[in-house]
Write a structure and sequence with these properties.
Radius of gyration: 17 Å
Strand order of the largest sheet: 3-2-1-4-5-6-7
CATH topology: Rossmann fold
Enzyme class: oxidoreductase
Family: Belongs to the short-chain dehydrogenases/reductases (SDR) family. FolM subfamily.
Number of strands: 7
Distance between the termini: 50 Å
Protein name: Dihydromonapterin reductase
Strand content: 15-25%
Keywords: NADP, One-carbon metabolism, Oxidoreductase
Organism: Salinisphaera orenii MK-B5
Bound molecules: NADP nicotinamide-adenine-dinucleotide phosphate
CATH superfamily: NAD(P)-binding Rossmann-like Domain
Order of helices and strands: EHEHEHEHEHEHHE
Oligomer: single chain
Number of domains: 1
Length: 239
């Protein structure tokens, strides 16, 4: 049977690229998405199974997990890519709401999906399956302006280590920390050039660099609990 991979947030950018590349390689894909986009339509036209939903709270995450399991009873890997990113709001009630949203998508959803779907991951001790959490280099070195986003990505990274212990030896659990792969629309020119200036490789990365890291993890049957930066050296700065 064709091995199948689940990708969350597959309707745009890195998630859409990962799902498309898995299809290129002959994997079945279950693409989770929230908003309708041209990218998700293209994935569906290529045979991806779709599961729509927003990771709002435990009930919503559980419902999405059950529909993912129904769409793909046997999984080779789960890629937790869905994410929300914004600077922390200035006033406390707005920041508290952001914190809950970040927690839901970065920590609660991976926790519930992994717990529900572990039995559907088709790994063995000799050929373990994969859970891959996409975190951020800022999980280790938080940006004060985005502290709530960073804190919940750090929480996701910590969950990776706990899940690596819990699911060994049948499932490997690793994290990838992207650096600058794309800018947000609200990033101004000064910010963009400062980021490139502080990145040793001196350019933006590509979604394909993240896919290369995903596939390298999947190809390695003796790697679990690892946290892998794919950042052009951005976490180091230029020194
Ligand atoms: N791009 C970069 O430079 C960069 C840098 C560091 C880390 N990363 C990490 O790499 C991953 C992909 O980044 P990206 O730039 O491709 O992200 P993106 O363009 O912001 O896409 C995020 C995806 O997550 C979905 N999502 C957000 N909140 C959700 C929720 N509550 N419920 C369900 N889905 C939700 C979005 O759905 P909608 O389309 O409906 O909003 C979208 O599909 C993320 O984990 C991100 O943190 C990226």
């Amino acid at each position: 049977m064709q091995p199948c991979v689940a990708v969350t947030g597959a309707n745009r950018n890195i998630g859409a690229h990962l799902a498309a590349r898995f299809l290129d390689e002959g994997f079945g894909v279950v693409a989770h998405y929230r908003s309708e986009t041209a990218a998700i339509e293209r994935l569906a036209a290529r045979g991806a199974r779709l599961v729509r939903g927003s990771f709002d709270d435990a009930a919503a995450c559980t419902d999405i997990a059950e529909r993912l399991a129904a769409a793909a009873p046997s999984l080779r890997a789960i890629i937790h890519n869905a994410s929300s990113f914004a600077p922390t709001a200035a006033d406390i009630p707005a920041a508290a709401t952001q914190f809950q949203d970040f927690f839901a998508v970065h920590m609660l959803a991976p926790y519930i999906l992994n717990t529900h779907l572990a039995a559907h991951l088709d790994g063995t001790p000799e050929a373990p399956a994969d859970i891959i959490h996409i975190t951020d280099i800022y999980a280790d070195n938080p940006a004060p302006a985005q502290d709530l986003y960073c804190a919940t990505k750090a929480g996701l990274q910590n969950l990776s280590l706990a899940f690596a212990k819990r699911y060994a030896p049948r499932i490997k659990v690793n994290a990838i920390q992207p650096g600058p792969i794309s800018f947000e629309a609200w990033h101004d020119e000064n910010h963009r050039s400062a980021v490139l200036e502080a990145t040793p490789l001196g350019r933006m990365g590509s979604p394909e660099a993240i896919y290369a890291a995903v596939r390298a993890i999947m190809a390695n049957d003796y790697q679990t609990g690892a946290v892998i930066p794919v950042d052009g050296g951005r976490r180091l700065g230029r020194g």
